[in-house]
Amino acid sequence: MTGRGGRAVRTAAAAGPRLAAAARTHWQFAVLFAAGLVLRAIALVAYRPALIFTDSIGYLSNRNDLGPRPLRPFGYPLFLRILPLRFGLEIVPVVQHLMGLAMAVCIYALLLRLGVGRWLAAIATAPLLLDAMQLNLEQQVLSETLFEALLLAACVLLLWRPPRPGPVVAALAGVSLAGAVLTRSVAELVIVPAVLVLLLLRARLVSVGALVAAFGVPLLLYAAWFHADYGVYALNGLDGHFLYARVAPFADCKGLSLPSYERVLCPKPPVGHRLTVEQFSWSARSPFYHLKVPVSMRTPGEPWRARSDIAGDFAKRVIEHQPLTYAETVASDFLRGFWPTRTTEHGEVPVQRWMFKLHYPVYGSSLAVLRKYGEHPAVTHDLAVFLHDYQRVGYTPGPLLAIALAAGLLGAAGVGRARRSGLQCACLLFSGAALIVLVTAVGVNQFSWRYQLPGLVLLPAAGALGATALMGRRDPAPAFAPQRLQPVADAAPPLGEAAE
């Protein structure tokens, strides 16, 4: 065999022994990766063509007439638009499962590159590879997998090549973070630890500027696009709506100065007997849907906008009036993510939504959506039973994630040996990004186990880095230590330094 075909065969034949050698060297990760691969294959066969939740319907609708929507940014619909769904909806979970596996490889490779031991680096990928809820959400037409991948991509780009990233890599990281925000807006503040890491590493100002510009420009353009359609500069139009639902379960209007038209938003039942956050958002019983917008505040053609703005103003007054109650609620929901087991407390979104079922789950018009794509739901019963049973034990205990977060934060703070480990900035980036995303999610919306998934990607890596830093990094050469001030002549890197 000659030509390109022959070269391809010879290349594949030569790659086999190298892969086998790598698997023997990194057998701990190889075992976990193989288990994750098998579990994903089982999920693909068990539920066909994909799992469709209520939110999936909106995502698929926006895929067809791509544009800004009041409820969610367009990042995930754009992702769906890129995928060749003409070959079937199963393309979505296939790609998302591959993304899950690729993220595990990236985490393992990055941790090894930063001096983390093989055992610890492999263990850091286990939650992503083996957690049943991660598998479930990858099988769903939902944005979680893309969101995780974009956050991780930014972290890997900024940390891959020591001692500091150049402007091209910094710009790519900025684009990744912008993509994460346009997928789920709770990532808006992740730019803060990213910029802080570059400053601590004393990266060139052009790299810092590239990161900020690549992050900010796409968001500004999207906000302008949103303004062209809805008359307001924003990434979505229902922030006030969600913030109202967040505070309504504990809002106390006694002694609160309110405009007369906002009074209807005060919940009448006593605390503990009110609607849940989700019900305050969507139920017809919510006071939100009984709000009468004053004529002077109405927005022609967009009644939801003024209603959301008024609800947001009410919510801000409540937070100012009850700051400790709000802080306690957010802190309590944040800590719920570190509970030993995944249960449903009063008022929470049922965890069963994100668990494998013995039948094909139906939400709203999901069956009609499947028919629109020429699909019919199917379940392989024996495999569904296996996944249902596996989910009882195949989850990451919350206390382990809490320990990982603590180790990452201690490493970022430079406690003990961590100060000389060269890993402070890496710890800061992973633990800071996780902290921001998880706190913001419960601060502006509600607690849901679905919104805890980014922790499976970021927190174990933060923990592995933090533990390595605290125990003393085996490689004595600091790869990512904050740079000490130097004489001006030495402060800037040489002109020939590679941009990447």
Give me a quick take on this structure:
By secondary structure, this protein is mainly α.
Instruction: Round the mean pLDDT to the nearest integer and report it.
Output: 90
Radius of gyration: 24 Å
Enumerate the strands of the largest sheet in spatial order, edge to edge or round the barrel.
Answer: 1-2
Order of helices and strands: HHEHHHHHHHHHHHHHHEHHHHH
Overall form: globular
Write down the domain tally.
2
Strand content: under 5%
> What is the total tally of β strands?
2
* Count of alpha/pi helices: 21
Q: Spans of 5+ residues with little confidence (pLDDT < 50)?
A: 483-500
Please summarize the sheet with the most strands: 2 strands, antiparallel
The helicity comes to 55-70%
Note the gap between the termini. Answer: 39 Å
Structural class: mainly alpha
Structure description:
The chain has 2 domains: 350 residues, no CATH class; 84 residues, no CATH class. The chain is built from 21 helices and 2 strands. The protein has a two-stranded antiparallel ribbon with strand order 1-2. Helix 5 runs antiparallel to helix 6. The longest helix has 26 residues.
Descriptive key words:
two-stranded antiparallel sheet, 2 domains, disordered C terminus, 500 residues, 21 helices, mainly alpha
Topology:
Elements: H1 3-25, H2 27-46, E1 47-48, H3 54-64, H4 75-82, H5 91-113, H6 118-130, H7 132-139, H8 144-159, H9 167-181, H10 191-200, H11 205-230, H12 239-247, H13 277-282, H14 303-321, H15 323-336, H16 366-372, E2 378-379, H17 381-390, H18 398-413, H19 424-444, H20 454-471, H21 488-491
Antiparallel strand pairs: 1-2
Helix pairs in contact: 1-2, 2-5, 2-6, 2-17, 3-4, 5-6, 5-7, 5-8, 5-20, 6-20, 8-9, 9-11, 10-11, 10-19, 12-14, 14-15, 15-19, 18-19, 18-20, 19-20
